Amino acid sequence: MTEKPLKNHRRTRKNQPTKESPTSSLPSTNVRTDIRASFLVFGPLLARTGKAEVYKPGGCDIQKEPRKVDYHIQAMEDMSVQEKPSIEETNIFVKMEVENGLKPAAITFEKSSVGATETAMMAASLVEGDTVIRHAAIEPEIYDLADMLKKMGAKIKIDENVEIAEDDLTDFGIEEEVWNVITVTGRKSLRSVSHRVMPDRIEFGTYAIAAAMNN
């Protein structure tokens, strides 16, 4: 007996480039307010749609004020084709539009930031050419994200402890003479992959401390 195909069933091939575009530049309410990492959709949305309206990170009852996202915005400004992209920032959200899209760029952070480094890496993965992220963060989460993006088709090189010219140190006002540098070679589209995200180190540490306190 021959099985009948299911109605409205779409077959997808593994590791094929993703062709669907997001239907909105504004994430859903639960994504943008309930999780601390909500702002990480900022870079990918700008790269794919040319605009993003993202609420500042939530999910933290300890810190009442929204976390600063200056370096995320700076990275996207550096990558903007426009000299002065449209940016609107309030205490609650950031709205940015890059009319002509993003381009490869050299990004230098005054202070290393895990979130801003991740934002730059994801956006750069969707832009053809080499983007260099200097004074980047290199926490384990950065390597984990790099592994996933490489599976998706981007090329990523992480160089630790790179000696920086004195002129650069002066220009950016950074005291550390050794920086971490990440080079991302992006492409127009990335393929779908399956990737297991590494465990949350802070959450693990919290449970470990709680267990130690009860022994």
UniProtKB/TrEMBL annotation:
One of its GO terms (biological process) is cell wall organization. Its EC number is 2.5.1.7. Residues 15-160 form the Enolpyruvate transferase domain. Residues 18-30 have a biased composition (Polar residues). It comes from the Eukaryota. Keywords: Cell cycle, Cell division, Cell shape, Cell wall biogenesis/degradation, Cytoplasm, Peptidoglycan synthesis, Transferase. It is found in: Cytoplasm. It catalyses: phosphoenolpyruvate + UDP-N-acetyl-alpha-D-glucosamine = UDP-N-acetyl-3-O-(1-carboxyvinyl)-alpha-D-glucosamine + phosphate. Residues 1-30 are annotated as: Disordered. Pathway: Cell wall biogenesis; peptidoglycan biosynthesis. Coiled coil: none annotated. GO terms for cellular component: cytoplasm. Residues 7-16 have a biased composition (Basic residues). Belongs to the EPSP synthase family. MurA subfamily. PANTHER family: UDP-N-ACETYLGLUCOSAMINE 1-CARBOXYVINYLTRANSFERASE. This is UDP-N-acetylglucosamine 1-carboxyvinyltransferase. The lineage of its organism: Eukaryota, Metazoa, Cnidaria, Anthozoa, Octocorallia.
